[in-house]
Amino acid sequence: MAQSSLDALLKGSSGRNTRGLLRILILCTIAAAAVSSRLFSVIRFESIIHEFDPWFNFRATKYLVQNGFYSFWDWFDDRTWHPLGRVTGGTLYPGLMVTSGVIYHILRFLTIPVDIRNVCVLLAPGFSGLTALAMYLLTGEMAPSPSAGLLAAAFIGIVPGYISRSVAGSYDNEAIAIFLLVFTFFLWIKAIKNGSIMWGALTALFYGYMVSAWGGYVFITNLIPLHVFVLLCMGRYSSRMYISYTTWYALGTLGSMQIPFVGFLPIRNSDHMSALGVFGLIQLVAFADFIRSFLPGKQFQKLLTYMVFLTFGLAFTGLIALSATGVIAPWSGRFYSLWDTNYAKIHIPIIASVSEHQPTAWPAFFFDLNFLIWLFPAGVFVCFQKLKDEHVFVVIYSVLASYFAGVMVRLMLTLTPIVCVAAALALSCILDNFLVMSTPKGAAQAKANGNESKSLRSGRNPLVGIYSYFSKAVVTGSVTIYLLMFVAHCTWVTSNAYSSPSVVLASRLPDGSQFIIDDYREAYYWLRQNTPDNAKIMSWWDYGYQIGGMADRPTLVDNNTWNNTHIATVGKAMSSREEVSYPILRQHDVDYVLVVFGGLLGYSGDDLNKFLWMVRISEGIWPDEVSERAFFTARGEYRVDDQATPTMRNSLMYKLSYHNYQSLFPPGQAMDRVRGSKLPTETPQLNTLEEAFTSENWIIRIYKVKDLDNFGRDHSNAVAFDKGLKKKRAAKKRGPPILRTE
Amino acid sequence: MKLWGPLFFLLSVVSGVLSAESSRNKFEKYHSLSRSAPVDLNSASYEELVSAPRDYYAAVILTALDARFGCLMCREFDSEWDLISRSWNRGPKPDGVNVIFGTLDFDQGKTVFQKLMLQTAPVILMFPPTVGPFAKVDGDPLRFEFTGPISADQLYSWISRHLPEGPKPPLVRPINYMRIVSVITVLMGVVSLFTVLSPYVLPIVQNRNLWAAISLIAILLFTSGQMFNHIRRVPYVVGDGRGGISYFANGFQNQFGMETQIVAAIYAVLSFATIALALKVPRMEDVKGQQLAVLIWTTVLFGTYSFLLSVFRAKNAGYPFFLPPF
């Protein structure tokens, strides 16, 4: 009885419905797992925005929600980049803010009282659920069996490579961009399979959304044309391809030009030229295809091949000529540094200084992808078996993205989706064969299909199946072990590495209890409550967004890094002597200087460790006044102790970091726990600034810039006078140093 | 007694004029030696060129070109130096600014190297004028340090920074016609070779197995951190201090060249085992053979993955997961 009812459930049309229902249930479960595994940080700490960039996005979203879309579009922000300001509305990708604004207004409309902060914090986990769905659809287009799609959805749901950028609170462009990336690719595959204008237009629509959301849209802009180009070279031109590509290109380019930040880049910038070139090429090929109907086949084949090569050559030389004459802007620096890997280090230190632009060592791949990393090549191999149009896409994407991920750590994010697709293809191939209960009835059953001569060697024989239950059990068992380990690995990595807000640091006390280090917020709230509303804060650019978001004070430079000279000015002020720095501080109306110092706690991400980048960046602008060499000892060491060079010890950054630090220790015992060195006994003498605030663990130190002396004295004289050293100074005859140089 | 003052003044004026005269002659003399390329110097002429009364700038490279000194940077930079000198001498210069470019090879100027106590080469010294409108108070030379391989553009911007304001000739790299011609020839050769050989080459180019192999190798190389090696120039292997070699670098952000190759090999074995299980085994018709193949490949997969996990644990001390054998 039970047997027959089960039969009724699993066979025929009701069986299909049951399976559909199961699939929906599984997908919902995966989405729920994806969302909940990203909530570690909210549960451990609180609902808080993380890191640096998200603070700006959060601030912009608040502005959008309060002032409406049009004033957001025209927003000129005078509280950043003092005294320049920033045309914020025209220099950001608005997709993220608009998305959360829309969600916020919908929830309000449904009378759900929700704070905009919670919308922002939970946006990334919410979209990761959608990514899992999009991944199911994309993989479903690649493989006949729906199990591959479900596996891929499960993989992308919990893989650390994606979680790293989408935990709750990590309110960054990537939060929605990966969903858009995967979904755009799904629509593109759909379009090229069906050759329908509708799918092409939908691709363009989501491409436009992607352009509005993330600068990484250039990846799509280049990958789709490359796919088409490779298909053309393989001689697979079809009207389906023509329809879908031209629809996508025309509508997508128009759509992307609506974003003010992108503007006319799609027709002027070299990053976008491949799309334009392939657009022209496909017109020629379509024309050639038209001619084919009038020519005998053999001649035509030749004509086509030559035309492909000729046009490619012509377009390439044309591109070079136009770039050389300056009609087309040269490659943008970030993009260029992907190909010439030493370019950034020499020409744009500000790009090279960002830690997520460093190359990737192999443990990072394994850390972020676990066993998917070795299923990945197998999955690509499986794609070569049938090698339909969509499989070509997987292959191109895999090779390109793994190159990019090797060059830059942050591009691991673009590699992750295709790794999930390929790994799911390989694993479903195994499971589909080994999870079949029935045993094949000998060689007689071998079918004669799938015997194309073009196919790969390993796939040439007909599919038979697995005979013994023992083999099935062994393989299924070991795969289950790997899958369980994958889940354990992802949970461990997420909870240990990717769930710290980095605004709040957590450490463990000797008894094992958690100890929260909350210096950043302590200092920012001090600024908010104790300084005038328009006090200008100078700090290294890493902290600009946080100061703007949490302390609500104007800053000189921030993480937008659009003006290298302004950043170099701050770097010069930090790396020069006080006599040089003070005029710079005065000229820029600086009221407070904020430095991050980890010496007491052993917090390695502090300003002294970033100091060399400040020196390098300012050396790029003022090579005569700042020299990196002068910060290294004769033996080429970067030291902060007795052996430190005079330039180092007189630099403002050094003084601000160690000012009064020696008083914490018994004489001669002062230790810097980050750099592991003993400090000089004497504390650095600070003349032009005075300590205003130091946080509990000394991570943040804030100094007030002194006003000009009331008696018109030089600051060092005034300090010497206060200390009672006047006679020693008075004995020397010296003209009063001029304070203001300009 | 009163006469002495004006006389002294007169004398000093005359001597100043004379010295200016002699330094003008000096400039003409060295400038005529070589109109565009840098002047080849020896110890004596170097001393004369940089001696005190001079109304010109002198930029001298102290280098060691001979092969037995093994100074790769000297030889690489020699052509760049030549380029700078030629560019300067060809273009329009600000009025009254004269620059002599000189090359002092170690073979010709041992005494100069000893006097300056130079241990390294190349070094670039730039002497500002001591008389004339651009004279500097102290005639001490400026010194350019080579911190690594450097292009003429960087040095040229350094030099022109230390020259007086004014329009300066741009650095012009001569067009390398030889290279253009050779590139075009090679391209045409390749195209015609391809056309002639296409019946034999096309099957290879269109071979799916070949492309699969290329893609897989590329992916394995990239995902095992080969680009990191290329960018950071990591050592291939490093001794462990006890006479052996350590195959794996300490720390999560470090790796050696050989380490990445081992990892790539591990990945390759794992992938191949997966491919065998997914594609080959279900196509075997022999019952016993299939059973055996399943066992072998599953064991290989399990053992290699266990080894990979143990390697990863060694790199990342806090990692809690492992599989039995290793």
Automatic annotation (TrEMBL), chain A:
<keyword id="KW-0256">Endoplasmic reticulum</keyword>
<feature type="domain" description="Oligosaccharyl transferase STT3 N-terminal">
    <location>
        <begin position="22"/>
        <end position="422"/>
    </location>
</feature>
<dbReference type="InterPro" id="IPR003674">
    <property type="entry name" value="Oligo_trans_STT3"/>
</dbReference>
<feature type="transmembrane region" description="Helical">
    <location>
        <begin position="415"/>
        <end position="436"/>
    </location>
</feature>
<feature type="transmembrane region" description="Helical">
    <location>
        <begin position="212"/>
        <end position="234"/>
    </location>
</feature>
<feature type="transmembrane region" description="Helical">
    <location>
        <begin position="364"/>
        <end position="384"/>
    </location>
</feature>
<keyword id="KW-0460">Magnesium</keyword>
<dbReference type="InterPro" id="IPR048307">
    <property type="entry name" value="STT3_N"/>
</dbReference>
<feature type="transmembrane region" description="Helical">
    <location>
        <begin position="273"/>
        <end position="291"/>
    </location>
</feature>
<feature type="transmembrane region" description="Helical">
    <location>
        <begin position="91"/>
        <end position="107"/>
    </location>
</feature>
<comment type="similarity">
    <text>Belongs to the STT3 family.</text>
</comment>
<keyword id="KW-0325">Glycoprotein</keyword>
<feature type="transmembrane region" description="Helical">
    <location>
        <begin position="464"/>
        <end position="488"/>
    </location>
</feature>
<dbReference type="GO" id="GO:0046872">
    <property type="term" value="F:metal ion binding"/>
</dbReference>
<feature type="transmembrane region" description="Helical">
    <location>
        <begin position="145"/>
        <end position="163"/>
    </location>
</feature>
<dbReference type="Pfam" id="PF02516">
    <property type="entry name" value="STT3"/>
</dbReference>
<keyword id="KW-0464">Manganese</keyword>
<keyword id="KW-0808">Transferase</keyword>
<feature type="transmembrane region" description="Helical">
    <location>
        <begin position="303"/>
        <end position="329"/>
    </location>
</feature>
<dbReference type="GO" id="GO:0008250">
    <property type="term" value="C:oligosaccharyltransferase complex"/>
</dbReference>
<protein>
    <recommendedName>
        <fullName>Dolichyl-diphosphooligosaccharide--protein glycosyltransferase subunit STT3</fullName>
        <ecNumber>2.4.99.18</ecNumber>
    </recommendedName>
</protein>
<feature type="domain" description="STT3/PglB/AglB core">
    <location>
        <begin position="537"/>
        <end position="586"/>
    </location>
</feature>
From TrEMBL, chain B:
<feature type="transmembrane region" description="Helical">
    <location>
        <begin position="262"/>
        <end position="280"/>
    </location>
</feature>
<protein>
    <recommendedName>
        <fullName>Oligosaccharyl transferase subunit</fullName>
    </recommendedName>
</protein>
<dbReference type="Pfam" id="PF04756">
    <property type="entry name" value="OST3_OST6"/>
</dbReference>
<dbReference type="InterPro" id="IPR021149">
    <property type="entry name" value="OligosaccharylTrfase_OST3/OST6"/>
</dbReference>
<feature type="transmembrane region" description="Helical">
    <location>
        <begin position="177"/>
        <end position="197"/>
    </location>
</feature>
<feature type="signal peptide">
    <location>
        <begin position="1"/>
        <end position="19"/>
    </location>
</feature>
<keyword id="KW-0812">Transmembrane</keyword>
<keyword id="KW-0732">Signal</keyword>
<feature type="transmembrane region" description="Helical">
    <location>
        <begin position="292"/>
        <end position="312"/>
    </location>
</feature>
<keyword id="KW-0256">Endoplasmic reticulum</keyword>
<comment type="similarity">
    <text>Belongs to the OST3/OST6 family.</text>
</comment>
<feature type="transmembrane region" description="Helical">
    <location>
        <begin position="209"/>
        <end position="228"/>
    </location>
</feature>
<comment type="function">
    <text>Subunit of the oligosaccharyl transferase (OST) complex that catalyzes the initial transfer of a defined glycan (Glc(3)Man(9)GlcNAc(2) in eukaryotes) from the lipid carrier dolichol-pyrophosphate to an asparagine residue within an Asn-X-Ser/Thr consensus motif in nascent polypeptide chains, the first step in protein N-glycosylation. N-glycosylation occurs cotranslationally and the complex associates with the Sec61 complex at the channel-forming translocon complex that mediates protein translocation across the endoplasmic reticulum (ER). All subunits are required for a maximal enzyme activity.</text>
</comment>
<keyword id="KW-0472">Membrane</keyword>
<keyword id="KW-1133">Transmembrane helix</keyword>
<dbReference type="GO" id="GO:0018279">
    <property type="term" value="P:protein N-linked glycosylation via asparagine"/>
</dbReference>
<dbReference type="InterPro" id="IPR036249">
    <property type="entry name" value="Thioredoxin-like_sf"/>
</dbReference>
<dbReference type="GO" id="GO:0008250">
    <property type="term" value="C:oligosaccharyltransferase complex"/>
</dbReference>
